[in-house]
Amino acid sequence: MFASDLDTTIEFLKGVGPKRAEILQKELGIYTYADLLGCYPFRYIDRTRFYKINELDADLPYVQILGRITGKETIGEKHKKRIVARLTDETGTIELVWFQSLKWVDENVMRGKVYIAFGKPTVFNSSYSISHPEMESYPRPATLTGNLTLQPVYNSTEKLKKFSLDSKGIQKMQALVIEQCLQEIRETIPAYILDKYRMVNRKEALLNIHFPKDTIALQNAQRRLKFEELFFIQLQLLSNKQFRELKFKGHLFSTVGKRVNTFYKDILPFELTGAQKRVIKEIRLDTQRGIQMNRLVQGDVGSGKTVVALMSMLLANDNGYQACMMAPTEILARQHYHSIASLLDGRLIKVDILTGNTTKKQRILLHQQLEAGEIDILVGTHALIEDKVVFKNLGLVVIDEQHRFGVEQRAKLWRKNSTPPHILVMTATPIPRTLAMTLYGDLDVSMIDELPAGRKPIETKHLVEGQRLRMFGFMKTEIAKGRQVYVVYPLIKESEKLDLLHLEAGIEQMRYQFPLPDFQISIVHGQMPNKDKQYEMQRFIDGQTQIMVATTVIEVGVNVPNASVMIIENAERFGLSQLHQLRGRVGRGAEQSFCILMSGEKLSREGRKRLETMVMTNNGFEISEIDLELRGPGDLSGTMQSGVLDLKLADLVKDQQILQEARNTVIEIFQQDPTLSLPENALLKRFVDKKSRGIALDKIS
Ligand code: ADP
Ligand code: MG
Questions:
Q1: Which of 77, 112, 147 is the last residue of a domain?
Q2: Which of 26, 114, 355, 446 lies 20 to 30 Å (CA to CA) from residue 82?
Q3: What is the structure's pLDDT at 245?
C-alpha cells in the first residue's frame, strides 16, 4: 500500500465508509483526514489517578479503579438480562454492571484477573457501582491509545453515536490517521518563530493534542496550536492592512487651515481633554503620510468622540475635501447633524443631512450640491453609502457606533473612489483589547481613555419589583428639580408582542403616577413611524416633556444633557454593554445623575453578576472585559463578521498573552519583510497569497 495522504477523503479511512463519511461531514464538517486531525478534544480525563474503592463518592466524575474481578454472573432474562461483576481492591468491593455488549464482556472480563475499570460511580444503598465501565487489562499494552494518561474527550452528537462515533469512536479514527499520516504532517510556522517562542513543531503538537504523552506535552501542544490559530488570523488581518497601505495612496491633509483653527479658537465651547488632543494628533499624523487611514477610535460613553470626529472632518475640509459621518440610526444621525449644525451655527462650512427619510426633492438637490462640492460635511445613515450618492471629492468617512457596521460596509467605502477616503471608526462603547485585536486587527487603534473634567460619576442602584414605589418617588423628586428622566424597556425580537404589552402596561402605570399637566411623557418605540419618533424625541430634547418612555431605540448616542435619571426596566434582560450604553445617556450635564436598574426578585447567576457589575463600576473598559468573560466573544460581536471569532482552541479571555505574542510576531515580520520575500518567510507568503486571491483582494479592490 502507498502511504495515504492527509487530503484523502475520510470515507476511505478503515472502518468509515460512505455512510459514516456522510454523517461526519454533516455533523462535524469533516471531509478529509486533515479535517479530522483538526477536530481537537474539548477536554481530557486524567488517567494517571487511580481511586481506591473506599475513596469513592457519588459526586466524583469519571474515575478509574485498579482491582481484581472477584465475581461475575449473568442475571435476568431477555431485555432485562445483564452481567454483574465484582471488582475488589485492598479497600473494598464495587459492582460493575453491563446491559449491553454482553457477549464481549462475557469473553473479555475474566474472573480472577486484574483490570482497570473506568467510569462514573453511582451509589445505591450505600454501596457503589459503575454501569458500563470501560475495561482495560492490566498492565496496559503499550499502544498509541492504550497507555494514555490523559484520555481525550471529543465532541460527538446523537447521530454520530448511533454509528458508534462517540468520543471513543472518534479517538480510534484519530489513532488510525495518526498512525498512517504522522510523517506527512507539514510545518506551517517558520522555524525561527518556533525557536523564538520555544514551541513544539506541528507534528508533535498534533500527536499530543490527540494523544498526550503527559500534562506537559499536552500544554506544549495546546500552546503551539493556539498560537498557530491566532497567528494566522493576525497574519491575514495585518497582511490586508499592509496590502491596502501598499496599494492605495491616501489623500493628503497636509495643512491645518482656517476652519480647524477658527473652530478650535473661537467656537469650541470647552477645552479638549488630553486624550482627545492625543487622538486628534494621531489622526493628523495618519493623514499626512500619503497612505489611507483606517483607524478605530475607542472611547467610553461620553468621552467626547463626536468632537474628535468633527475636527477631523474640518481638517478634511481645510484641505479641499468633503467628509461624511455615518450613524446607525435615523435618530442618531439627526442628533449628530443638529449638534454639529448648532455648534457651527452657519459658520465655516456647509453641513447637510441625508437619511432614508429625505424626500425625493431634497435628495435631488442634495445630490447636485454634493457633486458640485458645495456640501462640506454630510451626516446621515446607511443611505450615505448607496451607490447613487456621489461626492465631488470625499476625503474622510467617519463611521459612528461601529458595532452595527460590518466589514462588508467598510469595504464598500473603500470601493467608492480610486483613492479611497480615510476611514475613522468610532465604537459606541469600548470593546476588550483582545476582541479589538481580532475583530479590528486590520485597523490602527486610538483610545480616548479620559472623560472631560468635572463629570460626576453616575450613581447606579439596583431595585427589585417590591421597591417600585421608591423609584416613582425618586423620579418625582428629580423632576421637581427640573430634571428629565428616561424609562427604558427591553424589546427583544422573539417576544416582541409580550414586550409591547409590558411597555404599554408601563406607560399606563406611568400616566397614573405622573398625571398631566405637571408631567408630560414622550413615548418612543420601534413600531412607531419615524416621523412620530422624531417628534416625540424632539419634545424631550426641547424640554417639553419630562419623561421619555422608550424601548432601546434611544440606546445609541442620544444626547440630552438635562436628562439626569435613567431607569431601566427588566434590566436583567439586557446585556452588559447595552446597559452601559443606556446608562451613558445620562451624566452628560453638570447635575448628579442616577441610573436605576429595575428587576424581578429572582435572577440568574449571570443576570445578577451583570447588575452587580453595573452598580460596581462606571468604567466601560472594565465592563467590556467582564462582558467578554460572561458571554464569550461570539455573542459580544453581535451581528458582526463571525469568521474571525470561530476559534477552535484559543480563548480570547484566557489566552490574551498568546494573542499578544502572535500579533507582535506578525507585526515584527511585516516590519522586517513587508513583502514576505525572505526565504524563511516562504511558508507565510504562500498562506497570504492563497488567502488574498480568495478574500482580501476582492474585498478591497
Ligand atoms: P461620545 O464619546 O459618547 O460620543 P459625545 O461626543 O457625545 O460622547 O460627548 C458627550 C458630551 O460631552 C457632549 O455633550 C460633548 O459636548 C461634551 N464634551 C466633549 N468633549 C468635552 C470636553 N473636552 N470638555 C467638556 N465637555 C466635552
Ligand atoms: Mg457618540
A1: 147
A2: 114
A3: 81
